[in-house]
Amino acid sequence: MEQWEKELERHNLQKAFSCALGYPVDIEEILEKARSGIYKDTPENRKLGRVGQHYGSKKTEEKKGEERKTSSEEEKLLKDAQSKDPDVRMAAMTNPNATEEVLKQGMKDKNNRVRWSTMGNPKATPEILKQGAKDKNWHVRWIAMINPNATEEILRIGIRDKDFDVRKAAKRRLEELESKKTLQKAFDAGLISEEVFEKARSGIYKDTPENRKLGRVGQHYGSKKVEEKKTSSEKEKLWAVMQNPNTPEEILKIGAKDKDPVIRGAVMENSRTPEEILMIGAKDPDWMVRWVTMQNPNATEKILAVGARDSHPKVRTVVMTNPKTPNDILLMGAKDEDWQVRQAVMENPKVLRDILLIGAKDDNWKVRHAAQVRLGQVLG
Fold it and tell me: What global pTM score does this model have?
């Protein structure tokens, strides 16, 4: 193109832009901005303080303000992670903005519930999850296995765990990983189409003419419409809300009846959940929700009595470890069919000497040992 033709084209472009916008424009600035995405050094841009900034971006001051805000929030979370109040520490660990440094603090916490919350955070790194996989508390190890960030190495630690439920969770996740590997091999070998591969791997319908026609692009395979389902992000936020000690009671009531057991469990973990709502948790269809309920500091004798008759031995066991469990319930536990329940009775700090004498004659040596150790402490 000749030089005069280029100049004419520029002139026409400038005229067209000016007419469209209703005021005169500098076509050179528009072209420069379009090419580089950066505001040119002009008097107007200097006046607006946007020289050198990316077109459409926020001002540098705003960015700095956001950075300061992020830094301030991290500092607050780090401070909360070291609070004397375990509820404050739990809230810091469930915060979706918790950094790796904050979560590392939670992993060192002596309170089991704080470490549970740390393992449940979707930002927990494999390094943190690996620590959780070796935690002394089985529930911390169990949550480490179900965290989506758990690697194959972590899951292989879980399948050797002494606890059945931890092994079961690890085995299920490993099977999922193996299934994905098999799908990848089948796809690489040309045995399945890309659409089938993507659908099977992600569980989400791909953007194709047929799926657009059916209005299911982006939806989970076999699920209801996306609008009717909580996204994972919404679930994480809801989980944090239900664990927050400042959440109003009426909201906790709704959460206690949620379809997702993870959300219901979060309600039962909340230290401000009242007895009325905890009773709902004590009768929940999911044993894990019932297990969490029995450890809530607001669990009354009435709620513990429900847990003492639970069908799942882990729920009955955790009732017997609770210092608030009265001795009439502990006596019931001393005669339980499961030896771990009986052992938990003997290790309860409030158990009476008469109950310990029953345990000292137990058929199981671990129960007898626990009773004899406590008798030595009582008599000593």
Answer: 0.56
